[in-house]
Design goal:
The chain has about 475 residues and is of the alpha+beta class. The protein contains 13 helices and 22 strands. Among the domains are: about 160 residues, D-Amino Acid Oxidase, subunit A, domain 2 (D-Amino Acid Oxidase, Chain A, domain 2, 2-Layer Sandwich), CATH 3.30.9.10; about 100 residues. About 30% of the residues lie in helices and about 20% in strands. Helix 1 links the parallel strand 1 and strand 2.
Length: about 475
C-alpha cells in the first residue's frame, strides 16, 4: 500500500514526485511507456516562458510566473542545463504592435518583470539577424531555455534517490475505489494507494473517467518542429516568437541549451493521441514564417524533424482540482506547462495538505543531483583524472556529440535507468548529432544488451515491439 500513486512520468509528474519525495510518504510513479519523459515532455519548444501570454487571473498565469522564477535554482540543483536568454515577440505592422501592447499590459498585471516594447532599431540592436519586415518587438528578459526531458529525467531520478518507486510499462486500465484507498489496475498487476494524482497528459481525461469524473476532456494539438545543426545556434541569442494567435504562440526561432537552432511548432488540432508523424507539407510553412522573423536561416542545415502533441483541455486553463476525496487532477497542461511545472508541484502539495494528508518533511532529503553531463562539461585535467579511474570515459561512442562509453553506461545504470536506444539518447545526446545515430547505434545496442543481460536482437528503440535487428545476417535466409 502506497500513500500516493502518480499516474504519468512526464515533467509535471516528475516534478510532483520530486517535491513529495522530500516528505515521509510511500510514493509510486507509474508510466505506460517503456521510459519516462516520452510524451509531450520529449517534444516541445523547451522554453521557460516569462508569463505575459496567459490571461490574468488564470492558473496558467499564476503558475507560469512562479515556475519561471523557480526554474533556475531547480535546474542548478538537478544539474540540468538552463539559460536565461530572454525572449522577443516580433510584430510586422500596427495591428501587431497593438497586440504587443496588450501583451505588455497583461504581463505587467501577471507580475512579469522587465517587459518592454521595442522599436525596430532597439530590436536589431539585440538581434542583428532579425527579419527585415519586423517593425517592433516585446522584450521579456526573464524568458529562458532548458532541456525538458533532461529536467524530467533528473527530477524523477532525484525523487527515486529519496525512495520513490518507478514502474514503467504500467498502464492504468481500471481504477477502483475501495473505501479509504484506490486500486489502480494494469495488465501487469495492481497498485494500492490512499491518494491518486492524475498527470496522464493527453490521456488524463480517460483516467479521470475511471474514477467517475467526466467534467473535462482533452484533445491533442499536433506541433511539428525542425532542428538545425549546432553551427546554426548562434543565428539568434533570444527566443524569437511571432505575435500570437488563438492557436498558440506560433512559429518560434530559438537556440537550444545544446547549441542547435529550433524552429516550430505548427498547431493542428486532432483526435488521434498517438499521431506523431511528421508531415513534409508543413516544412514550407515553418521555414516561411521563421525566415520572416529571422534573416538567414539555412534550410540545408536541417538534421531532423519531429512532432509533439500538446494536451489541450476543454476549460481553457490548467485543470488542477480535487473533485473526489483523495484524488487530484493535473490535466490540460499545455504551454506553458514546462515553465509552470515546479509551481504546479508546489500547488499540488498544498492541495494535498489542505485535504488533510500529513506531510512531515524528512530530516535530510536529497535535493541535489549530479549532472548527466558532468563529464563533457569538465575541464581537460578533470576529464583525464576520470579517464584514469575509469577508461570507459576515454572511449568515444557517439562521434557527432562526443559521448563516451562511460556516459552511456551511467545512463543505463543510474535511476531512472535507460533500457532502450531512445532512453540513452535523451540522457546523453548520443544519436542526436548530424548522423542521427547512423554510426553509434550498433555500439549502444551492444552496451544495452550486455548491461541489461538480454540478447542483442531484443534491444528496442523505444520499448514494445520496436526491435532494431531480427538476427545475425549469416543466419538469416533471404
Amino acid at each position: 500500500m502506497y500513500d500516493i500513486v502518480i499516474i504519468g512520468a512526464g515533467v509535471v509528474g516528475g516534478m510532483i514526485a520530486r517535491e513529495l519525495s522530500f516528505h515521509k510518504l510511500g510514493i509510486c510513479l507509474i508510466e505506460k511507456e517503456n521510459d519516462v519523459a516520452t510524451g509531450a515532455t520529449k517534444a516541445n519548444s523547451a522554453i521557460v516562458h516569462a508569463g505575459f501570454d496567459a490571461k490574468v487571473g488564470t492558473l496558467k498565469a499564476r503558475l507560469n510566473v512562479r515556475g519561471s522564477e523557480m526554474m533556475e535554482q531547480i535546474a542548478t540543483d538537478l544539474g540540468v542545463r538552463y539559460k536565461r536568454n530572454g525572449s522577443l515577440v516580433v510584430g510586422f505592422n500596427e495591428e501587431d504592435e497593438t497586440t504587443l501592447r496588450s501583451l505588455l499590459d497583461r504581463g505587467n498585471a501577471n507580475g512579469v518583470k522587465g517587459l518592454k516594447l521595442l522599436t525596430r532599431e532597439e530590436t536589431v540592436a539585440l538581434e542583428p539577424n532579425i527579419g527585415k519586415e519586423v517593425t517592433c518587438a516585446l522584450h521579456a528578459p526573464t524568458g529562458a531555455i532548458v532541456c525538458p526531458y533532461d529536467l524530467a529525467v533528473a527530477a524523477i531520478g532525484n525523487a527515486m534517490d529519496n525512495g520513490v518507486e518507478l514502474k514503467c510499462n504500467f498502464e492504468a486500465v481500471k481504477i477502483e475505489s475501495r473505501g479509504e484507498y484506490y486500486a489502480v489496475k494494469s495488465e501487469n498487476g495492481e497498485i494500492l494507494a490512499k491518494y491518486i494524482i492524475n498527470c496522464a497528459g493527453a490521456y488524463s481525461d480517460g483516467v479521470a473517467k475511471m474514477v467517475g469524473d467526466d467534467s473535462f476532456s482533452v484533445h491533442p494539438r499536433r506541433g511539428e518542429y525542425v532542428l538545425l545543426d549546432k553551427n546554426c545556434g548562434g543565428i539568434v541569442s533570444h527566443t524569437v516568437f511571432v505575435t500570437p494567435s488563438k492557436m498558440g504562440k506560433g512559429i518560434l526561432v530559438s537556440p537550444t541549451v545544446d547549441g542547435n537552432l529550433l524552429l516550430g511548432p505548427t498547431a493542428v488540432d486532432g483526435e488521434d493521441k498517438e499521431d506523431k508523424a511528421v508531415c513534409p507539407e508543413f516544412f514550407a510553412s515553418i521555414f516561411g514564417i521563421a525566415e520572416r522573423s529571422v534573416y538567414g536561416i539555412p534550410k540545408n542545415k536541417t538534421i531532423t524533424s519531429f512532432c509533439g502533441l500538446r494536451s489541450v483541455g476543454s476549460t481553457g486553463d490548467f485543470i488542477i482540482n480535487s473533485p473526489l476525496p483523495r484524488y487530484i487532477n493535473v490535466a490540460g497542461i499545455e504551454s506553458p506547462g514546462l515553465s509552470a511545472s515546479p509551481a504546479i508541484a508546489e500547488y499540488v502539495v498544498q492541495l494535498l495538505r489542505d485535504s488533510g494528508l500529513n506531510l512531515e518533511r524528512k530530516e535530510s532529503p536529497v535535493t541535489k543531483r549530479r549532472s548527466m553531463h558532468y563529464f563533457r562539461d569538465a575541464d581537460r585535467k578533470t576529464k583525464n583524472k576520470i579517464i584514469k579511474e575509469n577508461p570507459a570515459y576515454g572511449k568515444i561512442i557517439c562521434r557527432c556529440e562526443g559521448v563516451t562509453e562511460g556516459e552511456i553506461l551511467d545512463a543505463i545504470r543510474i535511476n531512472p535507468r535507460a533500457t532502450d536506444l531512445d532512453g540513452v539518447k535523451r540522457r546523453t545526446r548520443a544519436q542526436m548529432g548530424r548522423c542521427q545515430g547512423g554510426f553509434c547505434s550498433p555500439y549502444i545496442l551492444d552496451l544495452l544488451s550486455r548491461e541489461l543481460g538480454i540478447p542483442y536482437e531484443k534491444v528496442t528503440k523505444n520499448g514494445g515491439d520496436s526491435y532494431i535487428v531480427i538476427g545475425k545476417t549469416k543466419e538469416e535466409k533471404l
